[in-house]
């Protein structure tokens, strides 16, 4: 598998980045001016115990550079992780769009994808409750196209002028900068209660969608309604979706909290190591397409970013595949410096009048000017188009291009009036000629005023267990809100979504039961429930717990089956080093119970061995209990079964015990594909 990944790596590189890659290994140390230095440990001093001299240019250069190593973190989506890959369309989309990268199924377009949390700082934990960013830069032959998406299909607000308000409210409170990367505080919920357009997004944020299992198991949504335009100038409304091939899956809240402490880099590590192993993450691109004549065919406004198009009403057509197949060489140069912008489009992709989208078209360049220190950020290798680009823009901080010649204006005669605008036939971008008329007003169309119907649609679409998780999440969040008034306002607000939601939450947090509320919306959209998503045992991580003297043949057989299904075993024993079976087989031990936690695994396989250790046995029993309470598959063979005798775990759903190894392997792998056994009562 490894060799395969290496050869793919070679083929799929974005060639232009190669030019900038520098490998320092084996080289002599120089200053930034290229001067070889004979000493790098001691500053230049007047006498061995004397003061450092101003003359020491090497010391000054090294320290000055270090002092300036940080740039401002992104104001939102500060914590992120990215990888390179490729995109390939399944069939030509010429009927709907002239975008060249969506025409030819044999063509691979290089991409760079950055995943992120929204709220926390750069150093915050990966598994916090939050939306996730899913931003893709397609390096197309017609210029860069950025699909700057989230893993939630709707947004908190309808008009971009409110973005600073919602972000101020969800960030740590300004007087004491608490809490980090969490919405469980007064100002956020005060915003929610007083800006009720947030209701639908809040339902998603309180759901399991906000605690994904992996970046590899998240959907992505363009959120806004965009436009496709074909060669004949015909336009269609379009919504973009990414569907992960492994399905959409989450962790449970207790795990999210434990992992935030045990492995704050959980999602980073997961993505990085999947790519290193050659288990390349894959996502299919889906589009919902509406002809222009259907603009007003719905009971919501398609320009309203707090609304989704139910997939049952407007089907998602799968049109291509994204594969992430190469990790970055350098986090700062690539992941930190990449600059996305919803306004980076190519011919065939255009905007609509969604007021949230319109605001984004301003904000993203503006933010890069500060973050990346000037107007030339498009020259940073990760941002540079792979096609040639020419215009009369010049100068500015950190300019790299050396434009030759004296003509830097348009129109001109001295350079034959070049660079010259390209006609549409030559690939020149023209904006879709939408007819627009109206008075200048600061107001919102009445068609944007229903804030609750789709929040209820979402609630109606959840299974019982997903609903329970939403109630628990509201309880956790509001339980951290100090203001009784804010708590009550939120409960009363969500009574408009469902009393089945608002009443239990009110009880849990000691608020008054709402006197009115309820919804007449009975519609559900099964596509919104994650439990209807694809399931697979592939890339799931199993803790294999064993001691010396285990049954070699049995364990080897099960591991062979794991490998076959792409399941990843990790060995836990008394000590790191090796563990030895009764016939002498040895395995490398990655962890003991002090260095890991059940929350970090998708399942547990209990092997045990002949060696008995009272403390280890006790720790093993609590490890199993934790995995059991997180509804994970548990398997045990031979001696391992004795660990399951605690608290009647043995007879529960998703617990596989057997001595027939063939049967065991099949049943346990099937249980791994099931992921969670919600029907279990906690012990
Ligand atoms: Fe963003 N957003 N956003 N956003 N957004 C940024 O741009 C903004 C919105 C999204 O990995 C910033 O370069 C406004 C929706 C992602 O680098 C900033 C509004 C969606 C990323 C900005 C929105 C997103 C950003 C901060 C409302 C889902 C991370 C740093 C009008 C479709 C990209 C930066 C990356 C980042 C502004 C709303 C997705 C400040 C004003 C809706 C994935 O420019």
Structure notes:
With 683 residues, the chain is α+β, with helices and mostly antiparallel strands. The protein folds into three domains: 80-383, Catalase core domain (Catalase HpII,  Chain A, domain 1); 449-531, Catalase, four-helical domain (Hemocyanin, N-terminal domain, Up-down Bundle), CATH 1.20.1370; 535-674, Class I glutamine amidotransferase (GATase) domain (Rossmann fold, 3-Layer(aba) Sandwich). It has helices at residues 2-11, 15-18, 57-67, 163-170, 186-194, 199-205, 253-262, 266-277, 331-336, 355-371, 453-461, 464-479, 484-494, 499-509, 552-564, 614-629, 661-674, and strands at 80-89, 109-117, 132-140, 143-150, 220-221, 226-229, 235-244, 282-291, 317-327, 349-350, 541-546, 568-572, 577-580, 586-589, 603-608, 634-636, 655-657. The strands form three sheets. Strands 1, 2, 3, 4, 5, 6, 7, 8, 9 and 10 form a ten-stranded antiparallel β-sheet that branches. The chain has a five-stranded parallel β-sheet with strand order 12-11-15-16-17, with helices on both faces. The longest helix is centred in the middle third of the chain and has 17 residues, at 355-371. The two termini are 40 Å apart. CIS-heme D hydroxychlorin gamma-spirolactone 17R, 18S binds at residues 74-77, 80, 114, 116, 133, 135, 148-150, 155, 160, 163, 223, 305, 338-340, 356, 359-360, 363-364, 367.
Give the tags:
683 residues, alpha+beta, Catalase HpII,  Chain A, domain 1, Hemocyanin, N-terminal domain, Rossmann fold, 3 domains, ten-stranded antiparallel beta sheet, five-stranded parallel beta sheet, 17 helices, disordered N terminus, binds CIS-heme D hydroxychlorin gamma-spirolactone 17R, 18S
């Amino acid at each position: 598998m490894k060799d395969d990944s290496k050869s793919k790596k070679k083929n799929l590189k974005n060639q232009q980045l190669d030019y900038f890659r520098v490998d320092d290994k084996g080289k002599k140390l120089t200053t930034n001016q290229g001067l070889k230095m004979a000493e790098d440990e001691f500053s230049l001093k007047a006498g061995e115990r004397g003061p450092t001299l101003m003359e020491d240019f090497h010391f000054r250069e090294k320290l000055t550079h270090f002092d300036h190593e940080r740039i401002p973190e992104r104001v939102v989506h500060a914590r992120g992780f990215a990888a390179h890959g490729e995109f390939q369309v399944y069939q030509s989309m010429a009927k709907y769009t002239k975008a060249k990268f969506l025409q030819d199924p044999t063509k691979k377009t290089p991409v760079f994808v950055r995943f992120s949390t929204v709220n926390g700082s750069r150093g915050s934990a990966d598994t916090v409750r939050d939306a996730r960013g899913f931003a893709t830069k397609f390096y197309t032959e017609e210029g860069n196209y950025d699909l700057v998406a989230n893993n939630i299909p709707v947004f908190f607000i309808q008009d971009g002028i409110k973005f600073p308000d919602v972000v101020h409210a969800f960030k740590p409170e300004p007087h004491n900068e608490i809490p980090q990367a969490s919405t469980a505080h007064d100002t956020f919920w005060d915003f929610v209660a007083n800006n009720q357009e947030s209701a639908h997004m809040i339902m998603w944020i309180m759901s399991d969608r906000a605690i994904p299992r992996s970046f590899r198991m998240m959907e992505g949504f363009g959120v806004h309604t965009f436009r496709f335009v074909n060669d004949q100038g015909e336009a269609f409304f379009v919504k973009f979706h990414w569907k992960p091939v492994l399905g959409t899956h989450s962790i449970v809240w207790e795990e999210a909290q434990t992992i935030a402490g045990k492995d704050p880099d959980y999602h980073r590590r997961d993505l990085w190591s999947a790519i290193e192993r050659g288990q390349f993450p894959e996502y299919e691109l889906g589009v919902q397409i509406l002809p222009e004549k259907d603009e007003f065919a719905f009971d919501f406004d398609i320009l309203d970013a707090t609304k989704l198009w139910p997939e049952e009403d407007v089907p998602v057509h799968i049109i291509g595949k994204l594969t992430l197949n190469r990790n970055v060489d350098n986090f700062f140069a690539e992941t930190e410096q990449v600059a996305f912008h919803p306004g980076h489009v190519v011919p065939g992709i255009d905007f609509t009048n969604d007021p949230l989208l319109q605001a984004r078209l301003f904000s993203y360049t503006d933010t890069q000017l500060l973050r990346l220190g000037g107007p030339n950020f498009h020259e940073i290798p990760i941002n540079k188009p792979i096609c040639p680009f020419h215009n009369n823009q010049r100068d500015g901080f950190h300019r790299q291009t050396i434009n030759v010649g004296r003509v830097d204006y348009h129109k001109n005669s001295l350079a034959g009036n070049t660079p010259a605008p390209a006609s549409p036939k030559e690939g020149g971008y023209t904006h879709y000629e939408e007819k627009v008329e109206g008075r200048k007003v600061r107001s919102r169309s009445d068609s944007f005023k229903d804030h609750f119907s789709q929040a209820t649609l979402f609630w109606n679409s959840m299974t019982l267990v997903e609903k329970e998780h939403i109630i628990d999440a509201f309880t956790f969040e509001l339980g951290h809100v100090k203001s009784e008034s804010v708590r009550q306002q939120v409960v009363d607000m969500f009574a408009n979504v469902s009393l089945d939601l608002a009443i239990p939450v009110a009880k849990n947090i000691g608020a008054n039961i709402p006197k009115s509320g309820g919804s007449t919306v009975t519609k559900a959209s099964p596509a919104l429930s994650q439990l209807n998503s694809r399931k697979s045992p592939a890339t799931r991580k199993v803790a294999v717990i064993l001691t010396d003297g285990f049954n070699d043949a049995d364990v080897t057989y099960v591991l062979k089956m794991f490998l076959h299904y792409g399941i990843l075993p990790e060995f836990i024993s008394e000590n790191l080093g090796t563990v030895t079976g009764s016939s002498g087989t040895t395995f490398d031990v990655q962890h003991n119970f002090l260095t890991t936690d059940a929350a970090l695994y998708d399942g547990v396989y209990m092997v045990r061995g002949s060696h008995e250790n009272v403390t280890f046995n006790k720790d093993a029993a609590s490890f199993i209990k934790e995995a059991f309470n997180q509804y994970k598959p548990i398997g045990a063979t031979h001696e391992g079964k004795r660990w399951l005798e605690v608290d009647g775990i043995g007879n529960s759903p998703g617990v596989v015990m057997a001595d027939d190894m063939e049967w065991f392997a099949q049943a346990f792998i099937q249980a791994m594909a099931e992921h969670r056994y919600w029907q279990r009562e906690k012990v």
